[in-house]
Amino acid sequence: MKRIAHKTALHIGGWLFIGIGLLGLILPLIPGFVFIALGVYIISFASLWLYTKIDHIKLRYPKVGIHFDKVDKAISRFIKKAH
Length: 83
Fold this sequence. Notes:
This protein is mostly helical. It has four helices and no strands.
């Protein structure tokens, strides 16, 4: 039950960031692409398919993979603090 709640929280948080990102594409004050990318990355922790796609991107583009790893560490620290 705890795992389902955790996956649901990740999906809700990810879609919230995607929604903010879509607003950011319209509003000039919010960086839309950054929020959309962050939302997709958060959802990837709950979705095996999306996680493998991000791994493929990290292998194909190593410079982008470095940034993904930095974000991954920051999100992991935040999730561990939330527990």
